[in-house]
Design brief:
single chain, Rossmann fold, glycolysis, binds 2-phosphoglyceric acid, alpha/beta, PG/BPGM_mutase_AS, His_Pase_superF_clade-1, His_PPase_superfam, isomerase
Length: about 210
């Protein structure tokens, strides 16, 4: 059985380019972001991968990435579910601030803790732990059962909502997750075992 699960972070957004904390704000893709989404499709196509269903967030950068990728692999319009459970981590009061300005104001270490620690919340926002607490139930309820039925599943989402999933799939811990980064537009191709753990993982980097 297939049990194919592909995770892809959206292509570069306007706010990635401007180095702004984004969270639940809704900027579109840049030209490079569009190209990254198309390139992700090309890499999946080169492996002959096709999908039965796709999941994305309710933010435009992930939705467009999903649409562009599916068009590139010749599957526009397959069943696609949009849900805020897959949204980026909410960056609270940091949203819209420049990351370098934040480092100058609060210090490199504090900003790194807000961005990459497991359980420290940025002011007014979600920690990765909070993000896991909303992404994981959605994965268990909506995504995993389809993978287990042999459907080939695409998830186009965000750096931290996907770090939440990768943490669980790869068995990372609060100590090891801070060094885990997800590049824009690079598909992670998982095959799962019948017991829902990972049989095989490929990172489709250049
Ligand atoms: O700003 C954000 O929403 C995220 C992703 O772009 O940033 P970070 O990598 O700092 O978690």
């Amino acid at each position: 059985m297939n049990r194919l699960l592909v995770l892809v972070r959206h292509g570069q957004s306007d706010w990635n380019l401007k180095n702004l904390f984004t969270g639940w704000k809704d900027p579109d893709l840049t030209e490079l972001g569009v190209e990254e989404a198309v390139e992700a499709g090309r890499r999946l196509k080169a492996l002959g991968l096709q999908f039965d269903v796709a999941f994305t967030s309710n933010l435009v950068r992930a939705q467009r990435t999903c649409t562009l990728l599916l068009r590139e692999i010749g599957q526009p319009g397959i069943e696609t579910f949009e849900d805020e459970a897959l949204n980026e981590r909410d960056y609270g009061e940091l949203a819209g601030l420049n990351k370098d300005d934040a480092r100058a104001r609060w210090g490199e270490d504090q900003v790194h803790i807000w961005r990459r620690s497991y359980d420290v919340q940025p002011p007014g926002g979600e920690s990765l732990k909070d993000t896991v607490a909303r992404v994981l139930p959605y994965y268990m309820r909506e995504i995993l059962p389809r993978v287990m039925r042999g459907e080939r599943v695409l998830v186009a989402a965000h750096g931290n909502s996907l770090r939440a999933l990768v943490m669980v799939l790869d068995g990372l811990t609060p100590e090891t997750i801070p060094s885990m980064e997800l590049a824009t537009g690079i598909p992670l191709v998982y095959r799962l075992k019948a017991d829902t753990t990972v049989e095989d993982k490929k990172v489709l980097a250049a």
